[in-house]
Amino acid sequence: MIRYVLAVILAATILGLTATAIDHVSADRGEQAIEAEINTVDEAATELIEAEAATPTDASPQRVIEVDIPGDSRTKAGTERLVFEPVSSAEATRVTYRVSGQPEQTMVLDVSISPADGNTVDLSNRRGTQRLLLTLETDGGDPVVEVSDLQKEHI
């Protein structure tokens, strides 16, 4: 009888440890996925600034990019918060994100990304592929990438 009790206790302990490990790996994969998408935006904005010149009289150079915001799954934690906001004192952008069950994280991008219609580009509570329009503009002679959320404009 004691053997059965010990076997049940051992099985419950193993299952508990496995569930914890799966949650940890899921959170790590979710963070890696959203950081890769943030880097996609950063690279596209940097490439737009480096490859194009903003012209005040002609149509401004533009890029349409797609970012894939992960939702919750068995193997990957979903993104609960994703916000891009310009840093007013520098040519930089603060990106705040949170993956399910994890503390909020912040990254700073070395490119000035400004929302076309407000203070922040808030992609929180979005899932799947999101289309963003990047437009190169000038702000007092300095290049600024304006971001428009294409899904938001068509809703």
Low-confidence stretches: none
Order of helices and strands: HEEEEEEEEH
Distance between the termini: 64 Å
Alpha-beta content class = alpha+beta
| Beta-strand percent range | 35-45%
Largest sheet: 4 strands, mixed
Please provide the count of β strands.
Answer: 8
- Please estimate the helix content: 25-40%
Summarize the structure in words.
- With 155 residues, this protein is of the alpha+beta class.
- The protein has one domain.
- The chain is 35% helix and 35% strand.
- It has a four-stranded mixed sheet with strand order 1-7-8-5. A four-stranded antiparallel sheet has the order 4-3-2-6, with helices on one face.
- The longest helix is centred in the first third of the chain and has 50 residues.
- The relative contact order is 0.18.
- The model has no long low-confidence stretch (mean pLDDT 82).
Quick description:
The chain is α+β, with helices and mostly antiparallel strands and 155 residues long. It has two helices and eight strands, in the order αββββββββα.
Keywords:
single chain; 155 residues; alpha+beta; four-stranded mixed sheet; four-stranded antiparallel sheet; 2 helices; 8 strands; 35% helix
List the helices and strands and how they pair.
Layout: H1 2-51, E1 62-69, E2 79-87, E3 92-99, E4 105-109, E5 113-115, E6 121-122, E7 128-139, E8 142-149, H2 150-153
Parallel strand pairs: 5-8
Antiparallel strand pairs: 1-7, 2-3, 2-6, 3-4, 7-8
